[in-house]
Amino acid sequence: MKNNILKFTACLLGILSFSSCENYLEPELSPDKIFTEDVFANETTASAALYGIYADFMLNRDPTSISNGGLSVFGGLCSDELFDFSLQYTPYNKNEVPLDDFGPVYNFWTTSYKLIYSANAILEGVEKSNLKESFKKQVMGEVYFIRAFNHFYLQQIYGNIPIINTTDYTVNAVKKQNTPEEVFAFVLEDLKKAASLLTDTYPTADKLRPNRHVVQALLARVYLYHKDWANARDNATAVINGGYEIQSDLTQVFAKNSSETIWELMPSNLISTSVGEATWFTPGGQPNYTLTDAFFSTIESGDKRRQQWVGNIDYLGTTYYFPNKYDPAGGQYSVIFRLSEQYLIRAEAHAELNNLTAAKSDLNKIRVLHGDLGEYSGPDTKNDIVDAILQERKAEYFGEWGHRWFDLKRTGKIDAVLGALKPTTWKSTDVLWPIDAKELKLNPFLKQNDGY
Prior knowledge:
Order of helices and strands: HHHHEHHHHHHHEHEHHEEEHHHHHH
Strand content: 5-15%
Radius of gyration: 21 Å
């Protein structure tokens, strides 16, 4: 039965991803004639459609996508975190992102919008179906979350983006871009719908499909990025109280079904049993993507994460350091949300709300259990405590989902940091990637970002 569902899912992915890789907006067949009648006739095939989305998250290794290692690498290259020793993506390392190369700038956009289209197709199909109401609520809650997740990251990377909430290609093909504020409102609406439909229970034995806490984890992150401190605090608190636990053993943080994992995805056996980051970061005969000296030097020498999550390789008489959180032998799932982030989100929110005692308590939770460091003993001012929290995020999330890149952008520190590190190539407009030239040709209503 499992093999049959996987085969069906593979066929369905061909439908959901369309016959043309050039334009995600123009399917050859009418969605109304495919999805309602054939796919959503029973729970088995409808579930296969949903599983197809999660498989698609993990199938895209090269060309790259936001998931399965893409953001971990290119977020690091675009910030002060990683150096491209391989010289394969030097333009990204210099923040001179090309307009037209079928590379990450193109694939991040297209693969994310294909996932959004798939989510829309499932939403429309499930709404029209005669499936059991409890099943419909679960599926719709998950795909509202998936649609919000992809819109959120697209906006963070490209700025003004089209909101796509239908499978009607005649509408999508000429869709104008929405402002960040409009995308933020749309993402919040989808996440609130998802939270109302899902329960605290995972629908699978592993944490491979979202529950309500996964939605709240993204809500906490979204509110943090938009400086809505009270809502960031409250959603992070809901997750912290959800039964997860911080691991003091760093070897278990990225293990399957770790006690602090909130949402994880399984690597696809069609490509590899290891997560994408393991392939990207693990050196062969020479380094691949290494931590910059400027970044590595900021992690305290006694920090347990520096000792256990940083690998090193000697090459031509020089020692290079790289993120070593991921096992190239496999056996891990791709961790998208974990509990430590929720403590640090709440710490930052507490500090911004001038609850400095609570902020230090949450900061120390991660500093002590993950860093094996003493409690924070610096100046007792809001600005100093916020800086300590941001430093903790650096030590906690290097080589992971582009956290450092987004932190530099959302805190307004990016010009100062990258201007000093990359003085000959950094421009303020580099905070956003360009929209690929092929997409601009396909939709004449799209406008290029400034600086490109």
